[in-house]
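Reviewers of the previous submission asked for a worked example of the structure-prediction workflow described in the proposal, so we include one complete record here. The input consisted solely of the amino acid sequence. No template or homolog information was supplied to the procedure at any stage.
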Amino acid sequence: MLASTGPKTQDGGLMMYNILVAITTFDSPLAIRTLEEAVSIYHGQEESTITLLHVTPVDTGTGTVLGTQTPMMFPYGAGMTIGGGMVVPSVNSFEGSPEEHSEMSGHESDSDEITDRAGEWLKGQGVRFESVSLSGNPAHEICQYAEDHAIALIVIGHRDRSTIERFFLGSVSKHVIESSPVSVLVVK
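From that input alone, the workflow returned the following structure tokens.
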């Protein structure tokens, strides 16, 4: 049980244990296992909250959404700066061509659909949670969110990739482990 390692109040009692679950999809066995691991930790804490975080990868050099790949798949795409996360303007304040507006709107709705579906699953488990959707460099945004929001643990899935895939695509989970200001649980 993590209660002994969680954040403490001044009198030694357990503070709220905030768990960040970085999700890319809700349509895979890995996504379900990742949520199940977070829920098992959640139920072991007196005061816990799970934050579902979905990051749509954006080239921080140009501000463009990186293709239609599964979010978090390309942590350092062409022109991206490591650690230079960027939040894309909301559709309501978007300036640009109708085509760009439509492209961005589609990615925001994909992100919302993923967090909504995962949230419904968490509701069924009796879990207190919140959902957050960001855009930028996935590994950087995950670590920055954890630091800025008093997260005690990051739970993230990891897909096995070939050597060539790791070379070209990188690994978000690897970069999160290396850069995270808090403990990381990697689910395989």
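The first strand starts at residue 17 and ends at 22. We consider this example representative of the routine output the project will generate in years two and three.
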